[in-house]
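Module 6 notes. Inverse folding takes a fixed backbone as the condition and produces residue identities as the prediction. Think of it as a translation problem where the source language is geometry and the target language is the twenty amino acids. Below is one complete input and output pair. Work through it position by position during the lab.
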């Protein structure tokens, strides 16, 4: 088959495709696979019971059923849900937003595809602009979103050793420069893959830098506040007209409904709505209708704070204990887990690449992700990226323990 330039770019193998294929193969397999690679959220019984009750209520209400399944919504997404979200943001955080400041997308990945290509790439004046990732490692899904190559640029962080085999990536303020070729800044908070949470001071520095450069500041808030609030440290949400806040329903436990949320100025939301109408006429209403009452009542805040956050914090603590137990005697570091679903493991001086470690573990039916996938836009060589892997602790505790034991065995074998 002869593909176009677009076809060649988007039909190729990518880290994101590898991740999702590993996840799909594992779910379809009869083997006992340790699925520590994907970002699938945990199946929390209280949350699943809550959503089941909401679905049953909606199916018993003809008008709600039609809102969910039988009518096209606006290209910006289901109106009542967007209004309820705007009310929640205004009430809880004082944000000056309305439904006109909110658009839904067919998953947050689709939202980033739209945003990156609206802002970066070839401009009418002949310039080529990029998205700057001011702290790497960063989300694997950013890597191949651009319609053209070279749309991402990234900065190395500084590394702070914390003791007890923990470390933390910090924003390297001294090297933060926003040139004329930068169209926007983008960070995830909490960060996928590392669990890093940029401090409020770091976020303020980035907000000021973006405003001074007259470029938007995109914040990927898939794990943050107000939902699903998978945060284990203090962090305040920020928004103003120059911030584009991106959220997701996946980490609430609903990855299958593919619903992303973007909060931005009205001009940005209008542009996203236009792209939605071209790509898919409108976005699905299932997630919006399912969560409407939880958002309108504010109950989603209580659910996130008192069920989802403590559930993951307990799992994180158990997984970290397992790492310290099985890795005893090895030279290893764990990024301080401040949020999200992952442990980011660093093996200084690892004799093999992280990708080779990934392949050896996969041969043992233990799925992790090689760290080299998580440095999109970083042009300079850095040995560090071949010494790290990402693993999730969201799955069954027994599976997590078996996987950590296997990782320790393969790392020891590599050093030997």
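Target side of the pair, the amino acids:
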């Amino acid at each position: 088959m002869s593909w176009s330039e677009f076809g060649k770019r988007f039909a190729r193998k990518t880290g994101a495709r590898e991740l999702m294929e590993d996840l799909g193969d594992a779910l379809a397999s009869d083997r006992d696979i340790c699925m520590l690679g994907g970002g699938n959220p945990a199946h929390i019984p209280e949350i699943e019971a809550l959503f089941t009750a909401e679905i049953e209520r909606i199916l018993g209400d003809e008008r709600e059923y039609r809102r969910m399944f039988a009518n096209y919504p606006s290209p910006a997404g289901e109106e009542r849900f967007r209004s309820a979200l705007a009310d929640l943001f205004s009430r809880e955080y004082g944000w000056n937003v309305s439904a006109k400041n909110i658009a839904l997308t067919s998953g947050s990945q689709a939202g980033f595809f739209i945003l990156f290509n609206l802002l970066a790439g070839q401009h009418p004046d002949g310039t080529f602009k990029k998205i700057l990732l001011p702290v790497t490692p960063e989300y694997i899904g950013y890597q191949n979103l651009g319609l053209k190559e070279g749309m991402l640029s990234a900065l190395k962080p500084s590394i702070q050793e914390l003791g007890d085999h923990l470390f933390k990536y910090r924003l390297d303020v001294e090297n933060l420069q926003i040139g004329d070729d930068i169209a926007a800044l983008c960070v995830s908070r909490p960060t996928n893959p590392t669990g890093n949470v940029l401090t409020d001071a770091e976020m303020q520095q980035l907000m000021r830098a973006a405003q001074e450069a007259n470029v938007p500041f995109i914040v990927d808030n898939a794990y943050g506040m107000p939902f699903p609030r998978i945060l284990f440290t203090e962090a305040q949400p920020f928004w103003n007209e120059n911030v584009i806040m991106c959220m997701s329903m996946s980490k609430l436990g609903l990855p299958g409904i593919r619903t992303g949320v973007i909060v931005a100025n009205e001009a940005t939301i209008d542009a996203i709505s236009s792209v939605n109408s071209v790509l898919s006429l409108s976005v699905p209403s299932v997630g919006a209708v399912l969560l409407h009452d939880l958002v309108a009542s504010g109950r989603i805040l209580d659910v996130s704070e008192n069920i989802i956050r403590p559930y993951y914090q307990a799992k994180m603590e158990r997984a970290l204990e397992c790492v310290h137990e099985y890795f005893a005697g090895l030279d290893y570091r764990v990024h301080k887990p401040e949020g999200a679903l992952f442990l980011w493991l660093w093996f200084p001086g690892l004799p093999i690449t992280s990708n080779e470690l990934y392949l050896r573990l996969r041969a043992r039916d233990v799925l992790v992700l090689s760290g080299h996938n998580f440095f999109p836009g970083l042009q300079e060589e850095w040995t560090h990226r071949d010494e790290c892997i990402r693993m999730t602790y969201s799955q069954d505790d027994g599976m997590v323990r078996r996987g950590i034991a296997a990782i320790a065995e393969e790392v020891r074998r590599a050093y030997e």
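Reference fact for the lab report: The chain has two domains: 5-47+303-415, 71-300.
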